[in-house]
Amino acid sequence: MGDFIPKYAVKKALQYKKEFLQKNFMAASDLKYRFFYNKKDDACLEFTVTPKTGYVFKELTWIGCTWGVTKGIIGNGEIKYTLTKKLSDKAQRGMDERRKDIVFKEIEKVVLKIAKEYQYDFKSAYGISVKYRRPNIKKAICGGYSDTVAEKLKNNSLVSRVERWSSARGNHAWNVIILKNKQRKIYCDATWYQGNNIDSEGYVMDIPAQNPVNLTYDLNEFNSLGGALNSATKKLLQVHFAWADAKMEV
Known about the structure:
Mean pLDDT: 80
Helix content: 25-40%
Strand order of the largest sheet: 11-10-9-8-12
Low-confidence stretches: none
Structural class: alpha+beta
Radius of gyration: 22 Å
Strand content: 15-25%
Number of domains: 2
Largest sheet: 5 strands, antiparallel
Number of strands: 12
Distance between the termini: 40 Å
């Protein structure tokens, strides 16, 4: 990650710094912060207060040591993963770089539009009854997302062809988008790209900020879900193409 500091950390640090300095009537030079990840890969901010005559010495102030760890189940439930904040930040940084690519941005517009037009059909997929704040919205599971991506991009001037891949073992479907420009490939999972979740009131949540791990030129990143770890072995998971029965649909 080098000296990279995520935007959310900078915003949190500046907010805290402003409030702290105002409360203690101190100059800006009296307080500095350092961003880092701890051993659990949680995001942390460490504040150092420089002692001044008349002030109580306070060496370290901690805030926001944990921004959260995402856990979940992939496919038929046999694979469990943990996506730490450090790995998520790394994937987001990669997505920010990819968005500088005009071709990538155009493809993402299409995928994002699909993600907004659909919400995941938890009833069909898992037998879970959920509510939708937009009850008439289109609903689909992974195969529906994959088919829609293929349909929407089939006549796109930037695209040579769209492959539809699936796995019966993992009970999942996704796409590989072959571009005309140097035959590059974009690996796309519109289902996980959307990142559907159910909120505390039982409603399917609308699309959040675009998930950075499921639209990429990097097969390894795509296979690892942007840095998903096996909770038991702590090793990167190989999903999608690593399913033994993964195949391209004819």
